[in-house]
Amino acid sequence: MRIPAVLARSRRERGSLARQLLGLQALVLVVVVLALGWTAVADARGAVEDRAANQARSIAETIADSPLVREAVVEPDPTAVLQPYVEQVRADTATSFITVMAPDRTRFTHPDPEQIGKPFRGSIDRALRGTTFTETYSGTLGPSVRAVAPIFAVGSSSDVVALVSVGITVTAIGDDVAAALPGVLGVAVAVLAVGALGSWLISRRLRRQTHGLGAQPLARMLEYYDAVLHAVREGLLLLDGDRRVQLVNDEARRLLGLEGDVAGRHVTELGLSPELAGTLSQQRLAVDEVHVSGDRVLVVSQMPATPKGRSVGAVVTLRDHTDLQALTGELDSVRAFAESLRSQAHEAANRLHTTVSLVELGRTEEAVEFATAELAVAQRLTDRVVEAVEEPVLAALLLGKAATAHERGVTLEIDPATSVGATGIPGGDLVTVVGNLLDNAIDAALAGDPPREVQLSLWQADGRLELRVEDTGPGVDDPDQVFRRGWTTKATGQGLGLALVAQAVKRNGGTVSVRPGPGAEFAVSLPVRTAVPS
């Protein structure tokens, strides 16, 4: 199924994650704004009530301290003097009522003249004790925030002769709160609008990044992709723009020998070969490049990710060609051996024609001598190799390389002291080591001056297989780099043969060294895995 079809079906199954998130954000935003608005209104009401209580207290204390009031309350008719005065003050201060009363609660003043002379409703005990206080109480004008202050006799600070109460009704307080509501509502609406715009922008960006998928389809796709990454038999490595690992599947871990959590680590910190680490560190395209990493031959492809021309990382794929490379080496050896047999057959046909011609000419003795001399040389080489080397694959390889060297004008001399029994070393690794060393030696000898020779020595000692290959070529300039992938002295070489030699030697727990020359010499020492026959 194509990816667009999967995305379309996932969108139909349920609303996109962006849409769900937008709905959730809108709900949370409305709840938060309502809560904040309620809190703001409550705070505003509390502030208005506090302001009203402080205002009432200040007015009550001011009236109680007025000499006019203190003198009038002891007059025979206090109302005649106090009613006009306190009503003027009430109008000037925008309070709901100002009541001056006797200690027994009898009102001297009131906004409603009919209430004058009637008892005051509310608490006065603390005021009778000389203390001003505030309270909320329902009187004749309804619920109000009021302050009650004592009026002391002229010349006294403890003799309470009357009381004054100043109040602001809850209705008036509500009007003040209502006046503050437009500002509170305006702020709430502004916050809601800004929050809604921000949520919409976030939702739009999220919808674009998630391709309009919902949470469940995203989770399902993640499970699918995770299963695919673990099941695929090709190594996959995802790198970010800083060349740090973002994802690595099981096969890539196996091929690169990675352990533990490597996410976030730079490619140079993974323990890779310098050549492979250098390739992964570069922002470049790589297609089927062969690299040696540890004991494996890897085919590496790298595709940089550059959306809109901006580098954000790379996708790296890895394929294991270790076994294929070994089989290729063995196949090359068999092919070379077959070519040498074909050449020998051609030479044998020429020798046979020559021998027959000598017989026809009556030169019988010369014909016998010519035929037996050529056969003796070939037979001596074959007998020596077969007797000295018990490993059949290695014996066939040496005979093939000897014939190949002869065809190319190079003499391959096998040390008469060569003796190799059963080693237990895998035949493929022996072919890789000996075949590549001999091929390089023959090529090097051809680049030198005559006589062009290659010397091979093989022997076992102290439980190890020792190998020496020496040529008459010009030698190597940089012995420290000869086993690095890419190093070669050939105009068209890949520089892989000696790297494979070093890999095979390391895999079998051996060592390899080189003497730079002129006339380079390679020495290999490998531990045998079976007892050497006595």
TrEMBL record:
Pfam short name (any one): PAS_8
One GO term in the molecular function aspect is: protein histidine kinase activity
State its Enzyme Commission number(s). Answer: 2.7.13.3
Q: Which PROSITE patterns match?
A: HIS_KIN (PS50109)
Q: Name one GO biological process term.
A: phosphorelay signal transduction system
- Give the InterPro entries listed for this entry: HATPase_C_sf, HATPase_dom, His_kinase_dom, PAS, PAS-like_dom_sf, sCache_3, Sensor-like_sf, Sig_transdc_His_kin-like_C
Keywords from UniProt, A to Z, are: ATP-binding, Cell membrane, Kinase, Membrane, Nucleotide-binding, Phosphoprotein, Transferase, Transmembrane, Transmembrane helix, Two-component regulatory system
Q: Where does the protein end up?
A: Cell membrane
Q: Keyword Cell membrane: yes or no?
A: yes
Its topology with respect to the membrane? Multi-pass membrane protein
Q: Which residues form the Histidine kinase domain?
A: 315-530
Q: For this UniProt entry, which segments traverse the membrane?
A: 21-41, 179-202
Q: Which PANTHER family match?
A: SENSOR HISTIDINE KINASE TRCS, SENSOR HISTIDINE KINASE YKOH
Indicate what this protein is called per its UniProt record. histidine kinase
